[in-house]
Specification:
Structural class of chain B: alpha/beta
Shape of chain A: elongated
Number of domains of chain B: 1
Largest interface: A-B, 56 and 65 residues
CATH topology of the largest domain in chain A: Spore Coat Polysaccharide Biosynthesis Protein SpsA, Chain A
Number of strands of chain A: 19
Oligomer: heterodimer
Radius of gyration of chain A: 36 Å
CATH class of chain B: Alpha Beta
Distance between the termini of chain B: 52 Å
CATH class of the largest domain in chain A: Alpha Beta
Strand order of the largest sheet of chain B: 1-4-3-2-5-11-7-14-6
Strand order of the largest sheet of chain A: 3-2-1-4-9
Distance between the termini of chain A: 83 Å
Radius of gyration of chain B: 21 Å
Shape of chain B: globular
CATH architecture of the largest domain in chain A: Alpha-Beta Complex
Helix content of chain A: 25-40%
Number of helices of chain A: 22
Number of strands of chain B: 15
Number of domains of chain A: 2
Strand content of chain B: 15-25%
Order of helices and strands of chain B: HHEEHEHEHEEHEHEEEHEEEEHHEH
Largest sheet of chain A: 5 strands, mixed
Helix content of chain B: 25-40%
Number of helices of chain B: 11
CATH architecture of chain B: Alpha-Beta Complex
CATH topology of chain B: Spore Coat Polysaccharide Biosynthesis Protein SpsA, Chain A
């Protein structure tokens, strides 16, 4: 018993010849179909190159335009010859000129020997198909397609729309249940001859002639009529990209293909000399009985498709400039923005870095320079601390910072004294965790040694800026995780908010905070606010601090919580 | 006659619509979707005339070139061509030619602008080079583009054409294993007529000029460092082309005025047609569709990088010469500071610099992308 190969070729005929020779020399008859559009000298060259082999035949030539009947006609003609001329053939394997055997023929022979009645052909009902080009599944069988999808796309689409509108439907011949699947199959003599010698063949062919992409449906549908044992998968490893084009294998895929344990792969890059040499000449020693295992390749290709279609979230570069709301993530990773904390607590950045185990920057958007953690002048990715560079493209600055530090959470301070250009961008970013102690910016003014008139003016300016910023954070378009406390609220009970923020930053540590950072001294603060009011400024964002009464924060060192039973 | 009619039409349209003012660039996520409007049609019409003007200019300047060796009859159908303008590049040329030959460039079409260091003889001796020389001004020829456009129109039609400077080394995903023929076949299959490759400024550790470089050596051995994550990407809406700035030159020389920092986006590889023209170095082309090398819906297109070997030791002497010639960039005067600081041999390395290990590193860093090619 032996396997026979049917090869459909249209380019790179030298490579096809190598593969055909490989099979023929190993006692597998080969019937080659060459596309009619191939020039005569090239065809004659192929015939001459294989003239020394007695078990190679050439079949009558059809023009094989993609998606047309020609491919099926070619397959039928070549299959007929192989069944007739080589009676010892039990399985017929349909391959293309750009296929390459990955395992010795003996492996395949042994594999088929143990499965003598099995037809390997991917055959899926139209309802279950998810891969079809152009979104046409069942309609491939019920509409007419006189125009070329590749060359006359507009006519093609228009004609499909027209038929849908007027409700045109072709009758599917009785008893046929449309199935689709990969074009590359391996059928038994029994099944294949039943399809080719069917009494209804003429009518069925007439019907399929007008089906769209019949090479993916003719055998796939008919096999269900005649086969008793359909194994719905292809023995040929063939991957498709997001546009439905076959992926090409190159020299650097050698190890990947080796480990796949598949019998045949397509398409192979004609110049991939290393692949052809290794698989055709080199004695590949594998496990003779191994099942094909394309899982690893499948995952790799699924990843590639995802990169092409969805890209890497938070990355903006020469290949990827998504329009608004198409970013698939504005930034690459979650980050935390603290507003007012550095003012309330003297050593907040140090404390934060230690407690949460993250990178805690100062005011990244400070007007003078970028205050990276530790006072660095350059940061990951050679980012400069120049305020001018940052302000030239503040969004790029932020997205770069987050992208460059993937794997390490970034925290930074922000406030009304900073450049405000990124407010909207951060507010709309689900990765941002923004915690605000509103009005805290007044503490440095309170502690400063400035003239009161200057303080009042500065306070009014900052209050205006922060009010605008809070307006943005409270807008319905905000997607960031926003928490806002007024200064009065926060000072009263600082531990709860800090705990919840830290928990969110490092959820796994689940540590009770035992020590809060050093809080600024607020003695005389109520009176200070009253003085501002007396001067005609209305400090509103701080919350309620009664004049003359100093805020008394709850104990910062926390004892055991009471348990109430 | 046609030009006269065009000018008059211009005048009429300008009166009807007023001068069209556009922001020079838009940042992340703000690219407007092109609309079908009178304005848009007017813009397209103006760009068409601009393209024809560029082609006419190139045609006028064809006589500035004198052929030294013409081997263009060896160019076969489907050959991949490289177009290069050089001046005194005998140090860089050996590796430049070897690298791109290995990538699969079949023929180099080179314009030598008045070299006096033997570049001309070196090039003429190569079997796959066709060489022209000219003594005319580089700046007056749109920095060599007029000469390039003329040659591309004549020899490039229907070929994948690479347009590079001698200090540029093209790399792209899988470039060690897959040649340009494989890359261009993939681009053809994806229906992409052009390929983006941003410029990556490579620099040494230590003062410029203190290293040793032997002609023919891989320049990356001498200049292994680059800036990996400080790039600003914007879109220029008129031609809908990228505008990438950043890298070491922005960090070191333009920290005060980043908008003036050098442009780094390039479209060096194009499936050429007769009517195409580069507008501004190889940063942008007309027609506009060729600038669409990026994906706007979140996905990633395939892209590469052009490793810029400007900072080889010879840069220090060249900086002095360039400053005297005043032949670079639109505002040569603006670059005086830049050239002056280069002549002082600064150390461009910083603690955030990255050492080049290959295209996979650049891809992981998000500087280039395989864009679904696997």
């Amino acid at each position: 018993m032996s396997i026979g190969f049917v090869m459909l070729c249209h380019t790179a005929l030298e490579r096809a010849a190598e593969v055909a020779r490989h099979w023929a020399e190993r006692d597998c008859p080969v019937v080659i179909h060459v596309d009619k559009r191939v020039a005569k000298p090239a065809f004659d060259g192929l015939v001459a190159a294989l003239a020394d082999l007695g078990n190679i035949r050439f079949s009558g030539r059809f023009a094989c335009e993609w998606g047309t009947w020609g491919i099926v006609a070619a397959t039928q003609a070549a299959s007929t010859i192989i069944l007739k001329d080589f009676p010892e053939v039990r399985h017929v394997f349909l391959a293309s000129g750009s296929c390459l055997p990955l395992r010795p023929v003996e492996d395949l022979r042994a594999y088929l020997q143990t499965r003598p009645r099995v037809d390997f052909i991917e055959s899926v009902t139209t309802e279950d198909v998810g891969w079809t080009v152009g979104g046409l599944n069942l309609e491939r069988f019920t509409l007419r397609f006189p125009f070329s999808w590749r060359k006359q796309r507009r006519l093609f689409d228009g004609y499909v729309r027209l038929q849908r509108r007027i409700g045109f439907k072709r009758q599917i011949p009785d008893g046929l249940v449309p199935h689709l699947g990969s074009q590359w199959w391996c059928l038994t003599r029994q099944t294949l001859s039943a399809i080719l010698e069917s009494p209804d063949r003429e009518a069925i062919d007439r019907y399929f002639r007008r089906v769209w992409i019949p090479d993916e449906s003719y055998f796939q549908t008919l096999v269900r009529q005649y086969s008793s044992n359909v194994e719905s998968r292809s023995l040929t490893l063939s991957k498709f990209d997001y546009q439905g084009k076959p992926h090409i294998f190159y020299d650097d895929h050698l190890q990947l293909l080796r480990r796949s344990d598949c019998f045949v792969a397509r398409k192979i890059w004609p110049q991939a000399g290393k692949l052809y040499q290794n698989f055709l000449e080199g004695g590949v020693v594998g496990q003779a009985t191994a099942e094909p295992n394309p899982g690893k390749i499948d995952r790799l290709f699924a990843k590639a498709v995802e990169r092409r279609v969805k890209g890497r979230p938070g990355l903006y570069m020469q290949s990827r400039m998504p329009n608004e709301n198409w970013e698939n993530g504005r930034t690459a990773a979650p980050y935390s923005v603290f507003e007012g904390f550095a003012e309330v607590f003297g050593n907040f950045e140090l404390w934060l870095g230690k407690t949460a185990g993250t990178r805690a920057h100062g005011h990244l958007f400070a007007t003078q320079r970028v205050e990276y953690a530790g006072g660095e002048t350059v940061f990951n990715g050679a980012m400069s601390d120049s305020a001018a560079i940052r302000d030239y493209a503040p969004k790029s600055f932020l997205t770069n910072l987050i992208w460059n530090t993937r794997g390490e959470r970034q925290c930074f301070q922000f406030g009304p004294g900073d450049k405000q250009d990124v407010s909207w961008f951060m507010a709309g970013d689900p990765n941002a965790q923004i915690s605000v102690i509103s009005g805290a910016w007044i503490i440095p003014l309170f502690q400063s040694n400035q003239n009161f008139g200057d303080i009042r003016r500065e306070a009014a300016r900052l209050q205006k800026i922060e009010a605008d910023h809070l307006g943005i954070l409270r807008s319905p378009w905000t997607k960031a995780r926003v928490r806002i406390w007024s200064l009065a609220e926060f000072v009263e009970n600082p531990m709860e908010p800090l705990q919840s923020i830290i928990d969110e930053i490092s959820p796994r540590s689940m540590r009770r905070l035992t020590e809060a950072p050093q809080m600024a001294d607020l003695k005389g603060f109520g009176q200070f606010l009253q003085n501002l009011r007396n001067q005609g400024m209305q400090p509103t964002l701080m919350g309620d601090f009664p004049a003359g009464e100093d805020p008394t924060p709850a104990a910062l060192r926390r004892g055991r919580p009471y348990l109430v039973k | 006659m046609a030009a006269g009619l065009g000018t008059r039409l211009h005048e009429v349209m300008r009166r009807v619509l007023g001068e069209v003012h556009l922001p020079r660039s838009v940042s992340l996520g703000e690219l407007p979707v092109p609309e079908r409007s009178v304005m848009e049609a007017w813009r397209a019409y103006k760009l068409r005339w601009k393209r024809l003007r560029l082609l006419a200019r190139a045609f006028r300047k064809r006589r500035q070139l004198r052929s030294v060796v013409d081997r263009t009859d060896r160019i076969q159908a489907g050959a991949i061509l490289a177009f290069v303008t050089i001046r005194n590049e005998s140090v860089r040329l050996p590796y430049f030619l070897a690298h791109h030959r290995k990538l699969g460039v079949d023929h180099f079409l080179v314009v030598d602008n008045d070299s006096d260091d033997g570049s001309c003889d070196l090039l003429a001796a190569q079997e796959d080079v066709s060489l022209w020389v000219t003594g005319h001004g580089y700046k007056q020829s749109r920095f060599g583009l007029d000469w390039m456009t003329g040659l591309q129109r004549r020899y490039g039609h229907g070929h994948w054409c690479l347009t590079l400077d001698a200090d540029e080394i093209l790399i792209y995903p899988y470039h060690e294993d897959r040649n340009l023929r494989a890359l261009t076949a993939e681009l053809d299959a994806q229906g992409l007529p052009s390929f983006g490759a941003m410029m990556l400024d490579m620099y040494p550790k230590g003062p410029l000029g203190a290293q040793h470089y032997e002609p023919g050596q891989d320049p990356i051995e001498v200049l292994p460092w680059f800036d990996s994550g400080n790039y600003v990407v914007q879109i220029q809406p008129l031609l809908r082309n990228l505008w990438i700035q950043g890298g070491v030159r922005a960090r070191r020389f333009f920290a005060g005025e980043p908008r003036r920092a050098p442009t780094l986006n390039k479209v060096p590889l194009v499936r050429w047609e007769r009517g195409y023209a580069y507008v501004n170095s190889t940063h942008a082309l007309l027609p506009r569709k060729l600038n669409a090398v990026f994906d706007e819906t979140g996905g990633e297109r395939i892209s590469g990088a052009v490793l810029h070997t400007k900072f080889l030791p010879i840069v220090v002497d060249k900086a002095v010469e360039e400053q005297q010639r005043q032949q670079h960039f639109a505002n040569s005067a603006l670059y005086d500071d830049y050239y002056r600081s280069l002549a002082d041999s600064p150390d461009l390395w910083c603690a955030g610099s990255s050492r080049y290990t290959g295209w996979r590193q650049l891809e992981a860093m998000g500087l280039i992308s395989r864009g679904g090619w696997i």
